[in-house]
Amino acid sequence: MEKFSLERDGSELILHISEELDHHLAMQVSRTVDIQIERGNVKTLVFDFTGMTFMDSSGIGMIMGRYRKMSYLGGQTYVMGIGEGIDRIFTMSGLYRIIPKYEERKQRI
Q1: Element (H, E) at 103
Q2: Distance of alpha carbon 7 from alpha carbon 44, whole angstroms
Q3: Alpha-carbon separation of residue 106 from 11, 41, 77, 85 (angstroms)
Q4: Phi/psi of residue 15, each to 5°?
Q5: pLDDT (tens digit, 9 = 90+) per residue, 37-91?
Q6: In angstroms, rounded to a whole number, what is the distance separating the alpha carbons of residues 86 and 53?
Q7: Would you call 63 exposed, middle or buried from its count of C-beta atoms within 10 A (0-12, 13-18, 19+)?
Q8: What gap in Å lies between CA 94 and CA 91, rounded to an integer?
């Protein structure tokens, strides 16, 4: 089973990550997402963490790096599908102060 997948909807890039986000996966995700962003026309990046059970500090770094890249290019970054454990990490790390949380994509419309 794939650990992550990308979905493109116009200028929106949705990154689906399931199970665990550790150092090894964070590096793979960073490279893959950066390539998509650098190809252009990505205005919105959405991290979908539905089903994710674990994230370490390298996951936080990966999210922050993509957030900075999108901000530099004038884009937006969102998160959705946050479970209880990952919610605690986002709250304690302060990520919610810069990256909005949405339960459903249609809320952004």
Answers
A1: none
A2: 12
A3: 15, 20, 15, 24
A4: -105, 115
A5: 999 899 999 999 998 999 999 999 999 999 999 999 999 999 999 999 999 999 9
A6: 7
A7: buried
A8: 5
